[in-house]
Amino acid sequence: MGKFFDFLQCPIALKINDMSKVSYYTPEGLKKLRDELNHLKDVERPKASQAIAEARDKGDLSENAEYDAAKEAQGLLEMKISKMEETLANARLIDESQLDTSKILVLSTVKLKNQANGMEMKYTLVAESEADLKTGKISVTSPIGKGLLGKKVGDVAEIKVPNGTLKFEILEITRE
Fold first, then answer.
1. Which of 18, 57, 125, 173 is 20 to 30 A from residue 92's alpha carbon, by CA?
2. Which residue, among 135, 133, 136, has the nearest Cα to 122 in the 3D structure?
3. Is the separation of the CB atoms in 160 and 153 below 8 Å?
4. Residues in contact with 59: Cβ distance below 8 Å, sequence separation at least 6, in sequence order
5. What are φ and ψ of residue 154, in 5° steps?
6. Which of 66, 161, 62 is nearest to 114 (CA)?
7. How far, in Å, CA of 58 to CA of 105, rounded?
8. What is the rounded distance in angstroms from the CA atom of residue 137 to the CA atom of residue 126?
9. For residue 119, how many other CB atoms are within 10 A of its CB?
10. ∠ CA 130-131-135, rounded to 5°
11. Which pLDDT value is given to residue 64?
12. What share of the chain is helix, strand, coil (3-state, %, to 5)?
C-alpha cells in the first residue's frame, strides 16, 4: 500500500486526482460529510420549500421579492446538495493500518521544530475538507502540508510561504 501513496504524491497522480475528484477521508471525516448532507436534505430542503409556499401565499408572484429570494435560496441549496453528493460519491476511506510510518503521508501526525525560532509544534495532515488548524489538522494541499509530504524523521522541510521560506526539522512521525 505504501507504493500507492508514493504514486499519489507525484504530479501526474495529482492531476489525475483532480480530474476524478477522488478525496480520501478518515472514518470521522466521512461521517461528518454524510451527516451534513443528511441535514441539508432532511432539514434545510423542507425549510426552503416551506419558505417558497409562504411567499407564494402572499399574492402576486410577479412583484413578490420574498418569493424570488426563497426560490434563489432553494436553488443555491440544491447546488450545495448536488456538490456534496458528488463529493461523497468520489470519497474513499483511508485504511490507516496500511499507511507507512517511515515518512509523512496523509494522516501522519508530525512533530516539527521551526529552525528559525526553535518552537516545536504538532500537526496531523488530513484531506482539505477535514482541515482545522485549531485542532492541529492541516490540509495536505496547504503549502506546509505539501512541503511535508514524503519527508522522514531528521529531514528538514523548506517550505515557501508568502513571507519567505520556513525551515522545519521533522522530529517525529506517528499515527494517532
1. 173
2. 136
3. no
4. none
5. 95, -20
6. 161
7. 57
8. 6
9. 10
10. 110
11. 79
12. 50, 25, 25
As given in the structure block, the three cell numbers for residue 102 are 517511515
φ, ψ of residue 121 to 5 degrees: the values are -145, 165
DSSP, collapsed to helix, strand or coil, labels residue 156 as: strand
Q: Which three cell numbers stand for residue 62?
A: 410577479
Three cell numbers, residue 33: 460529510
pLDDT digits (tens, 9 = 90+) for 123-152: 988 888 788 889 999 988 888 888 998 899
State how far the Cα of 3 lies from the Cα of 7, in Å rounded to an integer.
6
CA-to-CA distance for 23 and 27, rounded, in angstroms? 13
C-alpha–C-alpha distance, residues 171 and 36, integer Å: 36
Q: How far apart are CA 33 and CA 26, in angstroms?
A: 11
Q: In this structure, what C-alpha cell is assigned to residue 76?
A: 443555491
What are the pLDDT digits (tens) for 74-121? 999 999 999 889 888 888 777 666 666 678 887 888 999 999 899 999
Name residue 67's amino acid.
Answer: Y
pLDDT of residue 9: 46
Alpha carbon distance 80, 142 (integer Å): 24
Tens of pLDDT along 13-65? 443 444 456 677 778 778 888 999 999 999 999 999 998 888 888 877 677 78
Contact yes or no for 92/21 (Cβ under 8 A)? no
